[in-house]
Design brief:
Strand content: 5-15%
Helix content: 25-40%
């Protein structure tokens, strides 16, 4: 079946829904919103901490937020992207509020602001400890109420459509690659439909599911990044995988592992070994409020040298009622597994959390492929550089969704549908035996990435990951050619592609920088520069 929509949005988190609402409200055409599961299962809903924006100008300002972002990004963030996000954050927050999203306020009517690791001021807007859920709720209501948006739940994007599908040879050197829509798997017919569009937005979220333990939902398989890479689009900074220092250690919950928000450390939580010893003083003068990459490596090191599977977060010195008021959902979750956070240490460990790289985009959110935009975690705007500053991700998605919407609305009258696109070839069969092969390969990808491309890396580990992933790639591509397209095999292909990109770009970075730490190049770029000057 062939569908025609002026705007095709793939992904239903804050990025996809914000963009969909922005273009739909201008009345420039029909919008299709594609969700691989239900609309409420986006990664946005898992974001507990909050959304960063300068709002209290009496003590805070844009320059402070810009500086904090550049420091956290290890000074390889794009200064233009950083300034665009920080300076446009307040208006993006107001847009979210206008769409019906609530943020907690103090008695005087001002926003109740939290502070998180790496921030020099209190600038994190939140809704209790389920900010992402509140944002998702408000956006879903607005999207469902908009007559110009059609939501396709449980539909799965298989590939984006370019000149390649018209028989033209497309390489990474091709300058004029264009996107004409996407092939989408229909859950009712189990056939791949053709969605033609004038403009396409990729907002497919993160890649956490390629690791054995992640704070992301199981659907975070890097689909958008892999699709754009296969279409010869530019993908950048994939080596910078952020591991959240503190998820609840619970072996029965790994996809997603339950997130213990960084706001708990901003609130006064202290990291300790299970015997009560503090350890962050050995790693950073900011102690438990150090940036995530430092804290994650510190915990990883302590776990290795002591043979532990977790460390602990201690809130027992804080007022019990205040703790329960600030973190009601975390309190309830921990109580459900027998942990009273007002009296007991919380067992925590690092977990794959956020992809700082992705589909390279410009300040308008447009990728190297014309008519294709990318927003949110699947994109690489340059904001995060080597490491994401806490709570900068949601605001990045909101700001860039507005930028992408403005630019695509300006350009859309110049585009038309490409009706020469052929329908998907759905030949092939799938047997139960092949399902077993897919399940096993997914497990192998998680083990390879966690063991060899994790928090601490080496050339030997990365080479081993490369070799294992190459074998899985060949096996999976051969299988894909013989079977009908299903969500399972498409996700496996995407996971292998993403794992390859993370590994390859990690191999190419011959230094320890930001989130990429390798024992073969332990000296930071600044340390090497200082050493070279001393030698001279």
């Amino acid at each position: 079946m062939i569908h025609k929509f002026d705007f095709l949005v793939i992904g239903g988190g804050i990025a996809g829904m914000s963009y969909a609402l922005s273009v739909a409200n201008r009345g420039k055409g029909r919008v299709a919103l594609i969700c691989k599961t239900s609309l409420d299962e986006a990664n946005t809903a898992k974001a507990q901490g909050g959304i960063a924006s300068v709002t209290n100008l009496a003590v805070d300002n844009f320059e402070k937020h810009i500086h904090d972002t550049m420091v956290a990004g290890d000074y390889i963030s794009d200064p233009l992207a950083v300034r665009q996000v920080v300076c446009n954050a307040p208006s993006a927050i107001q847009t979210l509020v206008d769409w019906g999203i609530n943020f907690d306020k103090s008695h005087d009517g001002t926003y109740d602001l939290h502070r998180e690791g790496g921030h020099s001021d209190f600038r994190i807007l939140h809704h209790a400890d389920d900010t992402g859920f509140e944002i998702q709720r408000g956006l879903m209501e607005a999207v469902r109420a908009n007559p110009h948006i059609t939501v396709f739940e449980n539909h799965y994007a298989v590939e984006i459509i370019t000149q390649h599908h018209l028989g033209r040879k497309v390489t990474r050197r091709t300058q004029d690659i264009e996107c004409y829509g996407a092939y989408i798997l229909n859950p009712d017919t189990q056939k791949v439909d053709t969605f033609l569009s004038k403009v396409t937005l990729m907002a497919t979220g993160g890649v956490g599911a390629v690791y054995a333990m992640t704070s992301n939902p199981v659907i975070a398989t890097g689909d958008g990044i892999a699709m754009v890479y296969r279409a010869k689009g530019t993908v950048k900074d994939m080596e910078f995988v952020q591991f959240h220092p503190t998820v609840l250690y619970n072996p029965s919950e790994t996809h997603p592992a339950f997130l213990i928000t960084e706001a708990m450390r901003g609130y006064g939580g202290v990291l300790r070994l299970p015997d009560g010893q503090e350890f962050m003083q050995k790693y950073d003068e900011r102690l438990s409020l150090a940036p995530r990459d430092i804290v994650a490596r510190a915990i990883d090191h302590e776990m290795k040298i002591h043979g532990l599977n977790h460390v602990c977060l201690d809130l027992t010195h804080k007022d019990a009622e205040e703790t329960k008021r600030h973190f009601p959902h975390i309190y309830e979750k921990c109580m459900s597994v027998g942990i009273d956070i007002t009296k007991d240490y919380i067992p925590v460990c690092p977990s794959a959390h956020y992809m700082c790289g992705g589909i390279k985009v410009d300040l308008n959110g447009e990728s190297s492929i014309h008519r294709l935009y990318a927003v949110g975690e699947c994109s690489c705007t340059g904001l995060h550089g080597g490491n994401r500053l806490a709570s900068n991700s949601l605001i990045e998605a909101a700001v860039y969704a507005k930028s992408a919407a403005a630019h695509s609305l300006e350009m859309i009258d110049k585009y038309d549908f490409n009706t020469d696109v052929p329908e998907w070839n759905d030949e092939g069969t799938m047997t139960n035996e092949e399902h077993v092969l897919i399940t096993q390969s997914v497990r192998e990808v998680g083990e390879i990435m966690s063991n060899y491309v994790g928090i601490v890396r080496s050339d030997l580990r990365l080479k081993r990951a490369w070799d294992r992933l190459d074998l899985l790639y060949e096996e999976t591509e051969n299988l894909f050619k013989r079977v009908k397209a299903t969500k399972d095999i498409c996700e496996l292909r995407n996971m292998i592609n993403v794992g390859y990109l993370i590994t390859r770009q990690a191999i190419e970075r011959k230094e320890s920088r930001g989130l990429h730490y390798t024992v073969d190049y332990p000296k930071h770029a600044y340390d090497k520069e200082a050493e070279e000057k001393t030698d001279k």
